[in-house]
Amino acid sequence: MSENRPETKKKKQPLSDRRKFILNMARGVGLATLGGFVWSAYVDEVTASQLLLRPPGAIKEDDFLRTCIKCGLCVEACPYDTLLLAKPGDNKPLGTPYFIPRDIPCYMCPDIPCVPVCPTGALDEASVTTDGKLDINIADMGLAVIDSESCIAFWGIQCDACYRACPILGEAITIEYSKNERTGKHAFLKPVVHSDACTGCGLCERACVTEKPAIFVLPREVAQGRAGDYYIKGWDKNDEKRLENASEIKTTTNISKKSAVDSLNDGLEDLY
Amino acid sequence: MNTLWNNYRYLILRRFTQISLLLLYFGANAWGWTVLMGNLSSSRFLDFVPMSDPYAALQMLAAGAALATDLLIGVAVITVFYLLIGGRAFCSWVCPINMITDAANYLRRKLEIDRVQNKQPASRNMRYWILALSLIISAIMGITAFEFISPISMVHRGIVFGLGFGWAAMLIIFLFDLFVLKNGWCGHVCPLGGFYSLIGKFSLIRVHHSEENCTLCMKCKTVCPERQVLHMIGKESLPVLSGECTNCARCIEVCDDDALGFSIRKLADNEKTGE
């Protein structure tokens, strides 16, 4: 066929080696950029889950995600089958350990078998050690939160299931008595969670009698607010220490009388 | 029977190794066995020897994680092990994905898919690009980039700890290898295979070719998942020195002429002939 084509269609010159090399490099870099962005976007999305309860001793979530090697040794060490590894389809950072307290809470073993087996230090032994001994009571897996509207103790029905279930009962959960104004002669026995003692083990969530638990554990980052540096408890000397390292920022604005007057007079042009 | 054993001896051994390892890991989670605990990312042998995936550790390093002593010991154990027996021996003797891609490749040959699709539009060097990319993404995002998408750990972890939708990953790889790219995952894409190829450059155990016995039947090249490493077949008596050889030994067992066999590389003298 090609012989019959008119002479005007010249045969293409072969590419020079230099040009070939440059084009191939450009193609490689382009494909790598394309793949890199897709890959990064995907990884960023799948690691964005915040509502995850980690095993005791887990380091900060950001560090946890880069340090956990997803081997499951903590899962195998757990005698209660509490810990799970995120499977594809769980919509959680793939392969990382977590637990669902309503199904199986953390029973707070004194010897914390899940932590020392961690090969990477994603579960940090030092964070659950006091005076050289493992101490599960200082673990921080999350914080129990009470929905006072669905908690039947707040309705006036006597229930202290969560209080009784709490492994550090009397410290992490206490019962607060108050008068039931509706009946006038009964008392509310309301559970109160204390964030300084609660480990987030979830035994309360497991024990809660309501259909969907009225007390549940959330990661501390999610459950708590933060007052920030602008407010301190003036009556609490310790709270002031929070601001010891705060640096003062002075901002000055030049006040101009003219602009204030202009601003007041602005928009009056149409009236006259 | 004897020829059957002769033609499949390494394949049977490989499947035996792969499945026993899976069973040992599975038993650790299901029945509390202590021979191999954890999974391929990191595990403990006999509840004592730590073993860790060096590529995962490399990503952690790039992501800026502090590397613990246990992890570093585990990485050293695995690295030395594969330096001795051949880097990509992991791929053909341990990795569970190998069974999937071997099945796809077998079907591809039986169905003669290569005859309708004879162009392989991708370079086998892609894996090194992906390897580099994974480290760059790990560094930028502060996360172990490949570990969050790796179908290898997804499948292995899935078999030990519960699969979820991991079967989809298996199917994707199977279909990809069967219909998109021959030896697609293991031979082109997988950065872990690329990583072990780099380690395997230095390993001691090598397939060796004796040209004088070769009858040029090319059965070895047909079964080889990395056929570029067999460039010397029928030309020169040489050991297979490319790190991309997986030491799967399929070439050795299909050879009827005793032209291929394992040998130990002699490091200093006679590297060229391997004798």
Walkthrough of the structure:
The complex is a heterodimer of chains A (272) and B (275). Chain A is an alpha+beta fold. Among the domains of chain A are: 51-139, 2-Layer Sandwich (Alpha-Beta Plaits), CATH 3.30.70; 142-224, 2-Layer Sandwich (Alpha-Beta Plaits), CATH 3.30.70.20. Chain A has eight helices and eight strands. Chain A has helices at residues 17-46, 61-67, 73-77, 161-165, 203-207, 220-223, 237-241, 257-265; strands spanning 84-85, 97-98, 129-130, 133-134, 143-146, 173-180, 186-193, 215-218. Chain A has a two-stranded antiparallel sheet. In chain A, strands 3-4 form a two-stranded antiparallel ribbon. Chain A has a two-stranded antiparallel sheet with strand order 5-8. In chain A, strand 3 (129-130) and strand 4 form a beta hairpin. The longest helix of chain A is centred in the first third of the chain and has 30 residues, at 17-46. Chain A is extended. In chain A, 31% of the residues are buried. The model of chain A has no long low-confidence stretch (mean pLDDT 86). Chain B is built from twelve helices and five strands. A three-stranded antiparallel β-sheet of chain B has the order 1-2-3. Chain B has two domains: 2-198, no CATH class; 205-264, Alpha-Beta Plaits, CATH 3.30.70.20. With 275 residues, chain B is mainly alpha-helical. Chain B is globular and about 55 Å long. The chains are: A alpha+beta (272), B mainly alpha (275). Chains A and B meet through helix 1, helix 2, helix 3 and strand 1 of A and strand 1, strand 2, helix 2, helix 3 and helix 6 of B.
CATH architecture call of the domain at 51-139 in chain A: 2-Layer Sandwich
Summarize the largest interface: chains and residue counts: A-B, 37 and 55 residues
End-to-end gap of chain A: 86 Å
Oligomer description: heterodimer
Number of β-strand runs of chain B: 5
Helix tally of chain A?
A: 8
Instruction: Kindly report the spatial arrangement of strands forming the biggest sheet of chain B.
Output: 1-2-3
What percent of the residues of chain A sit in helical stretches (DSSP H or I)?
25-40%
* Uncertain stretches of chain A: none
Radius of gyration of chain A, in Å, reads 31 Å
User: What is the number of domains of chain B?
Assistant: 2
Classify the secondary structure makeup of chain B into a structural class: mainly alpha
Count of separate DSSP helical elements of chain B: 12
**Sheet of most strands of chain B:** 3 strands, antiparallel
List SSEs of chain A in N-to-C order.
Answer: HHHEEEEEHEEHEHHH
- The rounded Rg of chain B comes to 19 Å
Spatial separation of the terminal alpha carbons of chain B: 32 Å
What fold name goes in the CATH topology slot of the domain at 51-139 in chain A? Alpha-Beta Plaits
Overall shape of chain A: it is extended
